[in-house]
Amino acid sequence: MFEGSHGFRTYNYAPVNYIQTPYECTNGFFEGSLELTDSITAFGEFRISQRDSEQQLAPVPYDTAFDPGYRVPVLDDDGNVVDYAQGVSKDNLYNPFGEDVIRARRRMIERARTFEQDVLQYQSVLGLNGDIDGNWSWEAYWNHGYRKMTDTSRGQLYGPFLSNALGPSFLDASGKPTCGTPDAPIAGCVPANLFGGPGSMTNEMYGYLEAKLVDHYKARLDVVNGTITGDIMELPAGPLGSALGVEYRDQSYTYDPDSAKAKGEVTGNTGPGVDGSYDVKSVFAEFNVPIVADMPFAEVLEVDVGLRYDNYSTFGGNTVAKGSFRWKPVADLLVRGTVGDVFREPSVGELYQPELDNFPQAQDPCAATNWGNLTPTQQNNCVAQGVPDGGHGDTDTQIRQKVGGNRDLQPEQGTTYTLGFVWSPGFLDGFTTSVDYWDIDLDDAIKSIDPETALNECTDSRSLCELIHRNYDGTIDYVEGNLQNLSNEKARGVDFSIGYNLSTDHWGDWAANLGWTHLIERSKVEYKGAPRKSFEGSADYDSEGNFKVFPKDKALFNLTWYFRAFRVDYQLEYISSVDAPVSFIDYVQDIDSQVYQDIVGAWSATENLDLTLGVTNFTNEEPPYIDAGFNASTDPATYRMFGRSWFARAKLRF
Known about the structure:
single chain, mainly beta, 20-stranded antiparallel beta sheet, four-stranded mixed beta sheet, 7 helices, elongated, disordered N terminus
């Protein structure tokens, strides 16, 4: 804990969170086939996985504005009861103020939150395939997948017991703190001390309040698919290839929360469960059309086209198309390109998830601490929302957002384009280079409006105010965050690769490859009517609220040396610098570029035994600290979370 410049004691929650989580997984796999006739084969696969894992998060940020507590009457200036709030009784032993407290907040630093998962999942595939007259082949299969997870969490607090522990209390005849009154003591209850310093919440207090919560999740997927492939006819440049198929997909998802969560009787994220499903009927066709072959400036020119129609039980039918071409004007050069529809249907959770409480970071512009920074128009907009002139007194930087699914969601749709070439010059054996430009434009992206965006827009221009719900005193009760088809997202960039393979008589074989991606654009319009924001070389949050950086340049260099039974691999990864805005203040953090290096050596000791020894991140680089990185204080999906480490592996074939 440290004293911030605003005079409040703040808490650094990041060190408590697990970065590397305990994880134990057992996997099994079976694959087999049986030739039924000369032209029909039966096949099957089965894989199963059992996982036990655990995470730890910072302690509960307890706040009676959102969490259960003792029911305290709220009085107006004339002493009339106008409302009831969750708070602390004036007769609580540990209440030093002698009056009811209607808003109390405390980081429960003595007890972290833990989450344990027990996951069983399996997949089975059964099918038949065969040939028809040697020119056509067919395949039909049934794919069944199932996943069951039990999530057990500790560290949250049980509401009815909080009401007892924060209500009236007294010292009994032996001097023991006791809940209730001398005439009506509450057996087994331990009064809670919210107003003491670190350590004032004892193990006995937590032992009474802590809730063990058990949630159950189930997911199922069934796919029945049939395809037939073959050449329809012979064209001057080659056969007209085709693939035709039908598919039926049915999936379901069930979330059964602990009963205390479903009733809203605990701290943290509460809400009812989910039980939803949908099915899809599909037909599709793909064709490979050779246009020209073995001609001047057209050794190969062919086009691939595809069409797919899906009929969803949730929102009806949809058709997507794709096309690509390959052109070799000369033997050394291949020019290629694609164009296609981007399509993603809403998941079961996105469709049917009921409203749950979430507590993202956000700052209310209408708070008294910000009032002096607002223009008169902004101040008037705050007052129009029910905020008292001068602002309200809540300085909390975590607010409640109610997030849920939406049965009216439509699919995300867009277009994607690529254009590039591959050059393999005949005069330089082993050398290849390629350049590809790509462009993705996605409409109706599924997401919820960030609460800080809603607060700022309402204060600036009175837009999105309908999402904000305030209490009688102007403080925020919650901000709506149900999923909608909101944003447009764009991404453009260039992929470049260069490789060279060299064989020598005495020094083995060498292979070098460099892959580089340059991000030209990464932008989005958060909701219809909002300005476009660009994030290339900067940072943003994805549709699930996860922090991400978007470096303009990323490169990966590999060098491999093969010598008899030995192999040595060297890898260098480069990530360019980014600018990351700091939360709540007008400052941009400059995140330096990062370089990671790995080296691995392998020896094929015998025909059946391979030995491998490697060192990853051997220069011991640490992940950059990023203020906006929330729980990890960085972006774990981009940067390596651990320093130098080594591994050894033996692979035995028998």
